[in-house]
Amino acid sequence: METMSWSLPTSPAGELPVIVSEYLLNPLGIFVKREKRMPKKAGLTALTGFRIGYAAVPGTDYRAAPMDRNAILWHKITRIKEAGEGCLIVSGNRQDTINLCFDPVNRTAVQAFIKTMRQQHPTIGAPDDVAASWLCWRDDDDWGDAQLSLAEMVAQENDTERFIELEIFEETRLPGVRDHAVPEMPVTAERLACCSQCGTALGSDDNFCPECGLRQRD
Fold it and tell me: How far apart are CA 144 and CA 160, in angstroms?
């Protein structure tokens, strides 16, 4: 089995808006996308839903609005904690957490998938650009088409190049974790694309700006 995916409500029963979480487990990691849902006929939503970010979902009786999304790659998971019959709390990167909820009847399959993937992808303490790019995805407010499935969003991100800020790169460092592999530092974090003082374009090997002489970040 290469992937597992499912959706289910993860807010308390009877509470509005209803929070629906979509999950994807694949060979790269654990992904989640959450959206808020309101019945089309529910009070203010029926009159002004479009004004407050709720778009009608064709073929259904509800309006939905994107809430948030997150990803933790297998090699950046630091802890998995039990949280009842139908939920696991997955921690990773510097401070990321995903509440991985599922139908209790699927518990064994979910746990087996996680165990296999973690065995195949040992934890890496050093920061890396692949994990950092998914933090950028997490923080990106522009989802494009918010009604895309999580699998489609993940596939879209796999075809996207991102500029990685050093601060985001460092978020993937796991203090105290011994590395099983040493990933390469991303070029965007090693060198500025241009001099911060005069704007002159820099080569990948430039330690000093060829125009003004300013030392560049190592």
Answer: 13
3-class DSSP assignment, residue 53: coil
Tokens of 134: 């998914």
DSSP string, 148-171: S-HHHHHHHHHT------HHHHHH
**Residues 96-112 as b or e (16 or more Cβ within 10 Å = b):** bebebbbeeeeeeebee
**pTM of the predicted model as reported, rounded to 2 decimal places:** 0.76
Q: How many CB atoms lie within 10 A of CB 85?
A: 10
Strands 62-73 and 77-82: unpaired
The DSSP output letter for 173 is -
Dist. CA 192–CA 218, nearest whole Å: 9
8-state DSSP, 42: S
Convert the pLDDT of each residue in 64-111 to its tens digit.
889 999 999 999 999 999 999 999 999 999 999 999 999 999 999 999
